[in-house]
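Chapter review: from sequence to fold.
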Amino acid sequence: MNIVISNDDGIFAKGIKVLSETIGKEHDVYVLAPDRERSANGHALTLHKPLRAEEVNIFNNVKKSWQINGTPSDCIKLGVGAILNFKPDLIISGINRGQNMGTDVIYSGTVSAAMEGTILGIPSIAVSLASFEDNNYETAADFILNFIRTFNPKLLPVKTLLNINVPAVDKKLLKGYKITKLGIHRYIDIFEKRTDLRGKTYYWLAGESLEHEDDPDSDFSVVKNNYVSITPIHYDMTNYKFLNDLLEMNITI
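The token string follows.
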């Protein structure tokens, strides 16, 4: 397959290197990634400055790679629309440093890159390692390589991508995988107030993660128990049940 790989940690991150070089052993890989970290950018697009793509040669087993001065979504949109002369068979975004589970997917640049691929009609997967330490990326990369040997990306429904989270353990300790739903993850937002050298006030968002739900079918629960979590998510955010309820309300204005 012709596979495009992107991320939000930047083209020099360890996760994208391990993933690209692993997948490149069996597939034709093209890397299109931000030139620096773009974590928590969500689905932002660059509209008010030019985008620049610079070809780089920093990976093994990769056909071509570019660093782009934009967001993860920019990388996919620009790559598919202007740089590549073909439509990829699959887009993989990752391996993200840190989990993307529950409500994290709303903020995640990693998930957004895969979402952009889905919007463009290309089967897409987001993959994250559930740790902020730079270790065990090989576990996630090997899992994805094995996964795409048997999973046909063309079976993904319209508007749907796969969000995969891998425990940060040696692959010998993986118990397998489970199909999951998004859990609930809440944060306490803490804004640290500071003063710059000119006496102006600014704020630094710190925040703390609260305990998440322990629903056994959620992504959080299965990853905690050393299973890979595979969650189908989609960009149609319509609440269809309430849509019908809303229609029945006969609201008059």
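Two observations follow directly from the output. The helical segments are 14-23, 72-83, 104-107, 109-119, 137-150, 219-224, 240-248. The radius of gyration is 19 Å.
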